[in-house]
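A student in our group prepared the protein record below, which I am reviewing. I have pasted the whole thing underneath without changing anything:
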Amino acid sequence: MQRRAKSYTLNGHSGWIWAVAFSPDGLLVASALADKTVRLWDLETGVEQRIIGVHSDWVQGLTFSPNSQLIASVWADWIKICDVKAGVLKHTLIGHSDWVHGIAFSPSGQIIASGSKDKTAKLWAPFIDSFNIWYSGSLRLLLVI
């Protein structure tokens, strides 16, 4: 059975859209654009709430923190973390040597995972003082102190 889906267009983009993400609280949707911006949209009204412009080139991916207060976005090998309400840059994570193609927050929101074309996956902890990974044979245990 085919059914015609309802749709709603978020107007106002000025470039290609590379990624979209819903905020976990269900209030916003974000779009990552080729015009170097992240745009935040109110899901209830469809009105653009904020434009975040912290990248020097197109934004290729993004994700919200579990509490919907932060958004992480990527371009090339740079990861930028911004405050959703204020639209200001909180952290820049640099460490990959090639394009980042995947990014995610941990369920606690304290750790960010990224995967890159440089054949590495990195765990970042910009919000906590101590962060260690313990190795035991093939088992890797993450310990946050």
The first strand starts at residue 17 and ends at 22. The chain has one domain: 17-144. The two ends are 53 Å apart (CA to CA). The domain at 17-144 is CATH 2.130.10.10 (Methylamine Dehydrogenase; Chain H).
